[in-house]
């Protein structure tokens, strides 16, 4: 298996007749860490420093859920279906117990996997995410549109507005992150389609109107992480997650936004490794 995410082979597995693409890094054995991604994201959007950092101690798997990037099928319009698809993908790889790292939309998916199939999950990391019905989550479409408008007007990448603060430190971190995403130059994933983006926005909108009562039943150890100024899933939601989850710990990075885990990738990897090994 590849020792770095940059050189990891893109593989595929048949999931009930649909091709799901994935990459894996690190030594096999133990409880694998499955990564669950954000709105519009494909394999190329994972920070290689985070994947490689975790893969130093764990078998790490990143994948495109149904209809996303190089995976087949149509993207579901509900988080519930996304969670079922992700769990079915995990089963297709033959795993009976995994750790989950869910970022943003992926954090919604991770919460539901833990509720739908608690026996499948050992530990959970929830980054830049929030509970069903969380404050401001249903506004994601407007936030996305605003960021794309600003990006077009300033010749910047939308992630510079969506994932990072507009301070000097935040924008320097954004530029570093965007450079890291370009390190891989071969065997690149397929970009998301407009249909996928619209389905994901619909799913996030519905999640933002949902009910988080069932979070109280999630007994797994959970590490909740965010920046202190998240414009996509307002940071208040991370505090709410930690309050609602019976076995949670909270980490908030200063002068950081939705992509706080990318801005503070070294500290995040250190925290996550310690959490997984506790």
TrEMBL record:
Domain (AB hydrolase-1): residue spans on this chain: 32-262
InterPro entries: AB_hydrolase, AB_hydrolase_1, AB_hydrolase_fold
Pfam families assigned: Abhydrolase_1 (PF00561)
Domain of life: Bacteria
GO terms of molecular function: triacylglycerol lipase activity
GO biological process: glycerolipid catabolic process
Annotated protein name in UniProt: Pimeloyl-ACP methyl ester carboxylesterase
Organism from which the protein derives: Bradyrhizobium erythrophlei
């Amino acid at each position: 298996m590849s020792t770095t995410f940059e050189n990891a082979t893109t593989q595929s597995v048949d999931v009930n007749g649909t091709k799901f693409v994935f990459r894996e890094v690190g030594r096999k054995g133990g409880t694998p860490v499955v990564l669950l991604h954000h709105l519009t994201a494909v394999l190329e959007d994972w920070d290689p420093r985070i994947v490689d950092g975790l893969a130093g101690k764990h078998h790490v798997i990143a994948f495109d859920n149904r209809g996303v990037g190089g995976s087949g099928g149509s993207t579901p319009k509900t988080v519930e279906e996304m969670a079922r698809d992700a769990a079915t993908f995990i089963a297709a790889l033959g795993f009976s117990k995994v750790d989950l790292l869910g970022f943003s939309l992926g954090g919604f998916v991770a919460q539901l996997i833990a509720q739908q199939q608690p026996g499948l999950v050992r530990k959970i990391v929830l980054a830049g995410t929030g509970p069903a019905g969380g404050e401001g989550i249903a506004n994601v479409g407007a936030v996305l549109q605003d960021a794309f408008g600003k990006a077009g007007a300033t010749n910047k990448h939308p992630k510079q507005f969506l994932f990072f603060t507009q301070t000097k430190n935040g924008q320097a971190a954004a530029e570093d992150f965007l450079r890291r995403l370009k390190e891989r130059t071969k065997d690149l994933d397929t970009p998301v389609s407009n249909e996928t983006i619209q389905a994901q926005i619909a799913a996030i909108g519905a999640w933002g109107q949902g009910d988080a009562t069932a979070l109280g039943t999630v007994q797994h150890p959970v590490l909740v992480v965010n920046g202190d100024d998240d414009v996509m899933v307002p940071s208040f939601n991370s505090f709410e997650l930690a309050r609602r989850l019976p076995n949670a710990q909270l980490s908030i990075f200063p002068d950081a936004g939705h992509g706080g885990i990318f801005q503070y990738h070294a500290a995040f990897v250190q925290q996550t490794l310690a959490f997984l090994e506790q």
